[in-house]
Amino acid sequence: MIKILSRFFGGLFKRKNNLKIGFYGPPNAGKTSLANLLCKDWTGEELGTVSEVPHETREVQFKEKVEIEHNGKKMLLKIVDTPGIATKIDYEDFIEYGIAKQEAKKRAKEATQGIIEAIKWLDDMDAVIIVLDATENPYSQVNLTIIGNLLARKIPVLIVANKMDLRKANVKKIEAAFPEYSVVGISAKKATNMDNFYDEIFKLTKRV
Amino acid sequence: MTMKKNSKLRGFSIHIMPYSEIRELTITERVKKILQLVLGNRVVILQGKLRPEEEIRLIEDTMAMVDHIKTFKGIELAVVDAHRGDAGFFLKMRRGIAQGLTGESNSLTVIGPASVVKEIKKDPSKIEVFFG
User: In terms of Cα–Cα distance, which of B128, B132, B107, B3 is closest to B49?
Assistant: First the structure.
C-alpha cells in the first residue's frame, strides 16, 4: 500500500526534467562509452571505465543532475549506466583476455550479481536507451527480452546502434529488426552523430 | 530449426515441453521447472513462449544459479515465431501482452544449458542451434 501511494504521489509531483534515463543492452555494446560521452559533455566528468573485456561494468553506476542543453532546450537527467545483460557467464572467457584465474572467477561472480542488479533497476527507469552493437545480430533473445519487458512496463525506449564507424556495422539491420522504435546510429568512440542522438533524447523524454 | 553439432559433444537429452505442462504454474514454478531441467543437462523445447517478465525472471534466476552452482555457466535462450514476418516486433509483443502471451502455438522456445548449447543463431524466421 505504501509503495502504491509512494508511486502515485511520486508520479504526481515528478518533475519531467529530472528523469532517470537507463542505459541497457548486451555486454560490450558501448553503454558506458556513450554514458561517459554524455556525462563528459555536460558535467565534465566521466561515469565509469571502459574496456574491450566484456562485463567491465559490473554494478549499476549513475550520475545525478546532468543538464543537457541542445538547440536552445534544456533538460536535467539522472543517467543510470547498467551492467550488460547476458544469459551466461563463464570465468574462462575472462582468462582469454589475459586475466588471472582467481580474478576471472571474481569478475564472473560480480558480473552475475551485476546482471541481477540491472534487472531490478528496470522498474525504476523513466525512459531507457538501449545500446546495441551495430556489428552484431540484433535478433538476440537478450535484446528482445529487454525490449519486451520495457514495452510491458510502458517505459519509453530509444535504440542506439553504436559502433557505426566500424566496417561491419549495419544500422539498417537494427532499424529493420525494430521498425516501431526510433533508432539512431552513432559511434560513441568517435562521437559521431551526437546531434541526432541529443535530438532523440529530447523526443524520448517527451514520451515519459 | 537447424541443429548442428561438433565433435566435442557430450551426453544430453532434449525435453519437448507442451505448453500444458506449465500452463497452471506460477511464474516462480515455471522458471524453477525449466531451470531444473536445464541443470539436468536437458535442452528444453517449449511449445509456445514465456511472457516478457518470465523471460527476464529466467535470466535473473539463471544468474543467481551461476553464482551458486560451480559447474553451471548459464543458459542459451531463443524464441522463434512462425509468423515473425507478418507483424513487427512491437505489434506482436503488444498483441501478445494483451492476450496474456501464453502458449502461442506458433512459437517455439529453446532453452539449453550453456555447457551444451554453444550458440543459438537467430534471424526472424529460423534459429540454428549449435551444440558443443
Answer: B107
